[in-house]
Design goal:
Radius of gyration: 26 Å
Largest sheet: none
Number of helices: 23
Helix content: over 70%
Length: about 475
Amino acid sequence: MSAAAVIVASQVVLILLVPLIHFVYPVFYVRLVAEDNWGEFATFAAFMLAGLLFAWLFLSSKNKLKDIWYALLAIVTLFVAMEEISWGQRIVDVSTPSFLRNMNYQGEINFHNIEALKLSGHSAYLLLSWSFVVYGLVLPLLVRYSSRVAVLVHKFNLPLPSLALSPLFLATAYFLVYSPLIKGTEIGELFFGFSFACLAVEQTLGKRRYVGSTSRDQWLGGGFVSATIIASLLCGVLLTSIFSGAAGYSDRNFARELNRFAIELYPARQYYPPAFTIFSYLERHPEFSIGNVYFNKGQLLEKTGNEQQARALFHRALDEETASIARDGNNPESLRSLSFIHAALGNTAGRDDHLKKSFDSYDVRMIEKAVHKQGPGTDEAQYSVWQERTYHKRWLYYRHMFQAESYVKLAEFDRAIEQYLAASRFAITPTFQRNLGYRIAYSVSNLCGVSIHRVSWEQIDNLKGDRSICDQIDLSPFNPVSSGR
């Protein structure tokens, strides 16, 4: 078997491992797609490596004009690398300037999330994926089989990947748009980084003649390409470990996504075995659990027809949360969890009582937090000043969101929409507004029996004041569910 065939085969194996990890090793998969985790930092490392190699190729070139492509590739890949980690914002713990926070729908220091510059997600990924097909497969094929195209590419000194790298470029195109996997676009971005890192290594080895035309040299080049992917992944794991200990962002995002995959994303597609695998992991690692793991697992068991096991877990969750309330009676999360558990056990009075207590406790906690931020000596006058500040609007937004999410969990979607609409009055950033668009869409979908991915801010304005949502609004303009996300 030739070296090129081995390179292609190794890439195919890597690509086929992704769905295996998705279904069989879901905790590993979450690490690959969660923000500030293995996949994101591996993507950053791959683009950074590509950028540095392209920059070195340009700076060491004797004909700068002829090798201007390397300068352009260096600028693009280094820019994408820094965008991937929001220019190190969370690493160095820098807050987003107010002018950028109001333009960026995620409230981060980056350009690709600025509303005015952003194409629709599906259109942008579709354009990018076809570009990868042309650049990574069509052009290399034309160079091989068309002398005219080969002459043009040679004339303009365009750096192209070899056909041996085409599986990476095709995988990038596929995962960005057509992947059936959950959050498959994150895998597409990871392969995007791998593609350019391997291209940079390939160009460096060829241009600097570290690899010649002999069989031994080709095998050596194939080893470098494989090592590039492995090194990028290891860097991702290492950087995640470092910054998880430094600021805790990695672990928090991992925990949030882990619970979301187990409670919502896998069950929504009826992928129950990987969801149960995650719950087993959360039982062994309670530090990553959000909410009561026994209650959440019990809900999934109930959904899959295991009612007896589900009730046993509900009672276990009830004992655990009751003990938590005994230790900290004002914990709104524990009180809310008790409300959910009583609802699952059919205890309406216990559900309503603990839900009201959780709302009251949440208000008390947030006011105490506000007073603490004001410092010693805070009096009613200072509290009134705080009420007029932006922080107070944020508190009101989170207050209504807390209540809305509680009603969603209890499947009372009409009351949830009322609270979401109340929260919209205090959604002062694009991040808040976009989040509301997704949350309201989910509740409207469940309430009205339609399939909605997101509602726009204008549509939210039209909903204000409506009581019978399904009867009083036209559902036709709502955005359809995006098939590739």
